Automatic annotation (TrEMBL):
GO terms for biological process: DNA integration; DNA recombination. It comes from the Bacteria. The keyword Secreted does not apply. This is Tyr recombinase domain-containing protein. One of its GO terms (molecular function) is DNA binding. The keyword NADP does not apply. Coiled coil: none annotated. Gene3D superfamilies: Intergrase catalytic core (1.10.443.10). Keywords: DNA recombination. InterPro entries: DNA_brk_join_enz (IPR011010), Integrase-like_cat_sf (IPR013762). It comes from Rhodococcus wratislaviensis.
Length: 354
């Protein structure tokens, strides 16, 4: 059982950190760095190892920022270690494939069934596949290419730049896969919002009117087609065909959707002085003012947390910090206003339904 638990911890560590096999094998007892809290409510976990690939003999010391489950998995492996002295190799050499198959067979056996564990599907799993999965998850998020480069410790910048440029070979395959995931995700999101519109749950924000008018046009087109061919039953594919063009201009912000239909109207590009750019600068987005931004019910928790945190900061400011108080108060008022608009768009529209 100790071996099974240790293997489970290794799988969590490998799948969530994105570390190469050589980097995992360089982990040592005591590699967990002290937990940091740069700002209240934000906790940072780090582990130390060595980058071996492309480095001089002996590798180069480096650190990985990880999530809490990884930090706890390393702690568990240390507790299960036969010789838990500081600086002793934590894992040493091991075969991930052999350990994974052993773990999967155990989970799928009667022992795992007795514990209520969900069966693990058959199929190969390797450390390279896990790194690729993390790259895919990071690459289509705002700033994801840079985040992937830092987390995966790419030696050549071109490796990561290939995600967003015009690479060849494996990089081109990854870019195509990322783009497909992004397109599918956008279609699912706009379909969900269209169904919300039909159910009376409307968007809010500066771009809400434009989006609502677009949904109304799509709804009208569907009704016209149904009238012309009453025996033809419409399905989601017909709706997706009408929504697909708008889905292509959807970009996700941390607390809003950006419908990048007209670069000349994008507030972020105006602020950056690049009005002809082909993509929005999500990091500079001010969704409360941009005419192409919308807020939806899924964004409410983000704004609520921001309002609560800003309120806490305001309570901690001294009387002499008037400038900072004015700035934070305006930020808090904006968050409260966005929350109120989201609530109004949701509850008022829902109340109008028969």
């Amino acid at each position: 059982m100790v071996g099974i638990v240790r293997t489970a911890a290794i799988i969590v560590l490998s799948a969530s950190s994105g570390m190469r096999s050589s980097e995992l094998m360089e982990l040592r007892v005591g590699c967990r760095r002290p937990i940091e809290e740069p700002i209240p409510g934000l906790t940072r976990y780090r582990i130390a190892s060595k980058i071996v690939k492309g480095q001089p003999l002996g590798g180069t010391d480096d650190e990985w920022v990880v999530i809490e489950p990884v930090h706890r998995a390393v702690e568990l492996i240390e507790q299960l270690h036969d010789d838990p002295r500081d600086d002793v190799l934590l894992l040493s050499r091991f075969s991930f494939r052999v350990r994974y198959i052993w773990f999967r067979n155990w989970v799928n056996s009667s022992a795992g069934e007795r514990l209520g564990l969900a069966p693990i599907p058959e199929g190969p799993v390797s450390l390279r596949m896990l790194r690729r999965t993390i790259a895919l998850e990071l690459a289509y998020r705002p700033g994801g290419v840079l985040a992937a480069k830092l987390q995966l410790k790419h030696i050549a910048t071109a490796t990561t730049e290939g995600y967003a440029a015009r690479p060849g070979g494996a990089q081109a395959e990854l870019l195509a896969e990322v783009n497909k995931h992004e397109a599918d995700r956008n279609l699912q999101l706009i379909m969900a919002e269209f169904h919300n519109y039909r159910n009376g749950i409307l968007p809010s924000g500066p771009g809400a009117r434009n989006l609502t008018e677009f949904f109304a046009t799509v709804d009208t087109d569907l009704n016209a087609e149904s009238t012309a061919a009453p025996k033809v039953q419409r399905n989601d594919r017909d709706i997706l065909n009408l929504l697909s063009k708008r889905a292509k201009v959807l970009h996700l912000g941390p607390a809003n959707y950006c419908w990048f239909t007209d670069p000349s109207r994008a507030l972020c590009l105006k602020l950056a002085g690049t009005p002809t750019a082909t993509r929005p600068m999500i990091g500079m987005c001010d969704s409360a003012r941009c005419p192409q931004a919308t807020h939806h019910d899924v964004h409410r928790p983000v704004w609520a947390e921001h309002a609560e945190r800003t309120k806490t900061f305001l309570g901690q400011l001294g009387k002499t910090r008037a400038t900072e108080r004015t700035r934070l108060q305006a930020d808090h008022d904006r968050a409260v206003r966005v929350i109120a608009d989201i609530d109004t768009a949701t509850t008022t529209a829902s109340g109008d339904l028969p």
